[in-house]
Amino acid sequence: MPAPEISVLINNYNYGRYVARAIDSALSQQGVSFEVIVVDDGSTDNSRQVIADYGHAVRAVFQRNQGQAAAMNAAVAASRGAILCFLDADDWFMPGKLATIARTFARQPELGLVYHRLQPTGNDDAPLGPPIPRSLCQGDVAPRMARSAGVWPFPMTSAISVRREAWNCVGVIPARFRISADAWLVGAIPFVFPVAALPQVLGGYRIHNNTWHRASDDAPMLRRRMAHWEATVEELNAFLTARDLGWQLDMADHFPHRVAASRLRPLGPAERARLFLRGLRFAGEPHVLRRGRDALRTLRLRQTVDPA
Question: pLDDT digit string (tens) for 173-192?
């Protein structure tokens, strides 16, 4: 059979209560040829049965637990489409998503990555705040990323679509990204290919407690994020050096990392003032008012203590 135009790649781990919604949202797309690949990363809940019930409507891959990077890499390896659309199992696509992505890539064959906004919701599907990301960046974003340690208002996994040539160029996601593996896609690809940002909301992003999000951040969560950001910069610098791309990232430019570190210890007035000024100059947020808002928040930072 001819290869489909798009491969929808769903990664799942213990989201048996959500994954059917994700699969259904993909299978209901129209106006473009596509396939749906679902990789279950060693779930211990009812995920496997939920996925198996779809039969030949999806291509299922069941593997031992290895982390999100391994699941996403396995999904790509099992796929045939020229465009790769990623979807977390607890999120979903809105009608028309795939056709819109296909048209965008067709109009701009030089693109490596296309993304759109997502609507954050709770488990009851009620909207939680405005669509994300608020700020949109497109075209050649590499110069901005080089001044911000790779940070930009990047999209979440379920908003990311990649041309297969771009995936092949930057290589598979490093295995160390057991969570938040999308950091590799939005970190490496923009250094090689231009990016397109669509203002439409074409998917839902479910907010719930997991290994990356809490209702309020505690100290272990902040340290986990900081370690992830450090690993991302390390992997991207190795990539940039190996490809002789002429860029190198500096953790000192990573404003979110500095903010997280400042929340883990008492902050004196002078340090707080310096952090505020860094926030005003942070290249990772292109919108002046949002950058100013984020900088002002540093003046009200409270120390986050370890749980007893």
Answer: 999 999 999 999 999 999 99
Q: Tokens 């705040």 sit at which residue?
A: 129
Residues 6+ apart with CB under 8 A from 175: 66, 67, 69, 70
Contact 156, 118 (CB under 8 A): yes
Query: Please, are residues 257 and 149 in contact by the beta-carbon 8 Å criterion?
Result: yes
Order of strands, edge to edge, in the sheet holding 160-163?
59-63, 34-41, 6-12, 83-88, 160-163, 113-121, 195-206, 92-93
- pLDDT bin (cut points 50, 70, 90) of residue 220 is confident
Cα 61 from Cα 73, distance rounded (Å):
11
CA distance 224 to 227: 5
CA–CA distance, 132 with 117 (Å, rounded to integer): 5
- Looking at residue 307, its pLDDT comes to 57
Tokens of 252: 């000192």
Q: What are the DSSP E strand ranges found in 42-194?
A: 59-63, 83-88, 92-93, 113-121, 160-163
